[in-house]
Amino acid sequence: MRFPKSTSLVADRYKMDQAPKSITDWASKDGAFKRAPSQFRNVISKQSGAEFPPEKDRYHLYVSYACPWAHRTLIVRKLKGLEDIIPYTSVHWEMLEKGWRFARPDEKLPGDNVTPDPIHENMTHLRDIYFKVDPDYSGRFTVPTLYDLKQGKIVSNEGEFEKSSDIIRMFYTEFDDILPEKYKTVDLFPKHLRQDIEGVNDWTYNDINNGVYKTGFAQTQDAYEKAIQPLFSSLDRAEAHLAEHAAPYYFGKDITEADVRLFTTIIRFDPVYVQHFKCNIRDVRSGYPELHKWLRHLYWEVPAFGKTTEFEHIKKHYTKSHKQINPASITPVGPVPDIMPKDQEIPAAAAISRSTKQ
Question: Do 84 and 179 touch, CB atoms closer than 8 A?
């Protein structure tokens, strides 16, 4: 395969061959939002002869702090002690016609590693990497993207459009042979809970993770109402489960994949999804006391969750990149604060809590 000589040629080819797509172009005829499948679905494996074996500093992870699917890879990377094995770069929060862009050298944004691309000099957008790998690429330019420096290939861009968990599950086990013992024993997908976790994953993804997008990007009133009802029914379901089982995590005393996958949507719910995606039947802080308690425990007590959450990226990305929803790009100030302190409730929720205990 012969590659173009420069990324500018790649960009020119893209302009000639493809019309830019907005997220709402993935709506069906009835106005319902439909996700497109990812196109790179390779795996890192410690099996002998694998094309992508686990090696220190061989892979680079591209993420956005704004994206919930990318966020979960950062959480698992930290939980599994992969910080010295898999470096990462976060793109800028802005995603316009050319997709995710890298921060410029003169831009100072919150969060670690929000920089120009450290691997490919002069590449300004994530899509430039996709076209370098495959000049005929016709899919979307998504995060997370896991890139193999040795072969110059994209291992996987699974995540933003999938119910599956390819990248985080690679992180669970495939690097264990080169990890310190304390991280080898971190098991986010234990055998005795796998059936339960997979069962929860199914409705959590369809109705909550993807449900907020189906609600927010609906193109008709009917599609919106059809999406919002299962969203809140499943939030009610999660609330009931946590009221009975959380101690303090979704399945008891240990963090599992279920916590990771749900957290990245719930942490964005009040700051963004309530207003931007019109998910406004209830918010978490006043309408879901068990979810609120679970959320704050993870954020304030577990660094892998709190230290990888960047509210500026989250709020500005959605409100300033989705022009079809918010043409003026106005970012609401509230809610204040973005997340409540661990032991503090808003007055209305505190009053309800007191009344139920009497």
Answer: no
